[in-house]
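User: My collaborator sent over this chain with a note saying "see what the structure looks like." That's all I know about it. Can you take a look?
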Amino acid sequence: METVLRPLIVVGSAVVLTLVIGWLVDRLLRRADARHRETPLWGLLRRCRLPLQLVLCTALLRGSYEQAKVLEDHSEVVGQVLTLILIASVAWLIVRIAAAVVEASYARYAATNRDPARVRRVRTQVTLIQRVVTAIVGAVAVAAMLLTFPAMRTVGTSMLASAGLLGIVAGIAAQSTLGNLFAGMQIAFGDMVRLGDTVVVDGEWGKVDEITLTFLTVRTWDERRITMPVSYFTSKPFENWSRGGAQMTGTIFLHLDHSAPVHEMREKLRDILRECPAWDGRDWGLAVTDTTPSTMQVRALVTAKDADDIWTVRVTVREQLIGWLADHHPYALPKVSTATAPPPPDGFHPSAPDGTAPKTGRG
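Assistant: Without extra context I'll predict from the sequence alone. Here is the result:
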């Protein structure tokens, strides 16, 4: 009977104590969140309840499983398993706490700062910092778990003796990976590209959707994802349309007949922009910028607050101007002449200086 009750009491006590402590901590965090609405930290810390309970339960079982006298022949194995679970749960708890602190800091900064560029910069930095912390904690946790095995301790001692040589070999083998890691840190704190920026890479334009320590994802206008190594942005030139403000100026080129009513087109462009919500009202214009023997080039200039709106303004102006010309001034649209050329006059010869047939010297 004792062999059954003892493990039940030990395990049951650990579980009950864990649930009680977890409930008390959650209640305290809920009260703190209600009192301090200006910061989301306490509400975010409530996400740590599950890893906290796992840490408490594993620690209690690790300290009391020997009193349970269960699986006495495998007590070392049980202790080893509980130790590994404890290390993993502690790492999980640290990552959750760090994520809560980072997200709360970003939320407070975003709520008090009205500059979208600064907010995107801080968002990029905190995202990469969170990933770095997660990677470091994970690496330390794995190393701690391996060092709990006696055989790994011996291997670790010999590895430390040759750490210099291994470091050189690893550095050469992982040169590309390390370059991307350093490039990721440079992007985070060098402010060359941020989450949400509109960029043009390899002829494709889109918004930066994700930044990690090794790669960057650009979401194009047609919902495609272009994944590139972060080292690309530190070694090659690229366009960042969000630098210095998101406002943009766009152009629309039309090839029209020389008889096109430019003045009336200018008035129509103003009417179109007044009814276009995407136009920000900063500037507009229409001018003839080039001419050819058959057409002239007309350029319409418009402005918008960001890349998405400038695209909307450009397609709207192009569509409505062409439709207006087709309805009211069809003669202004470019034409291809299909008339039959008249024949040359009798006796005309193109090779002669005066256009007349050359003399043959006979008679």
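A starting point for your reply to your collaborator: The mean pLDDT is 76.
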